[in-house]
Amino acid sequence: MKNTTDFSAGAWSETCLISITPLSGTEVQLAAMTETVDIDLGDKDIEQVPTLIGGRVIKKVPQDITTLTFEGYPIGISSASNKGLSQFFHMTNAATYDTTEPLVVNASLGRDLFRVSILWAEVAPTTASATTTALKAAYRFSIANCYMTSMKPSFTDGILKFTFAFKGAAFNKQGTAQIHEESTETTTALSVLSTYDATRFPEDGTTFTWSA
After folding, report:
1. Model's pTM, two decimal places?
2. Distance, CA of 136 to CA of 146 (rounded, Å)
């Protein structure tokens, strides 16, 4: 997939790339079946504590969960290993996929970790995690160690649409940042993202390796 976005208006519009990668799994591209993307960065809120003299003490509230929501139009279950949203949601990507039609996915108590990357670029590469073109503007948002928390089919508008969401914390238990933003407008391209596995993105790690 090669898209060119006209950046002369000074804003990103029309197209983007979306990559979803299960931990130690295969990266899946979602842009072709996705209509909308919403990134709800968790609030860094504050509260006030009244004092007896009539003053106010500001209490900082830890940053809330970040939620990524997509609307799209999948038409069935994928038989390819590590490449189906139904399998992601029901956590069957680590098991043996059903490859004989009719394809079947059953509910599961398990939950997998994912890295989600969204890329806007003047000249789009083949995937959201790939290196971009030098001298061309690009912006990429990524979140690691998040969970797929919602998948809701709807036929309300006369077309089968799925709304699915991923949620993750801004930091892991060691305080390591799990949200990674990158942009460029000059000579240097964005680097390719590293493989998403437990070695480079340990759940309780003190550092992550974002770039390959």
Report:
1. 0.89
2. 30
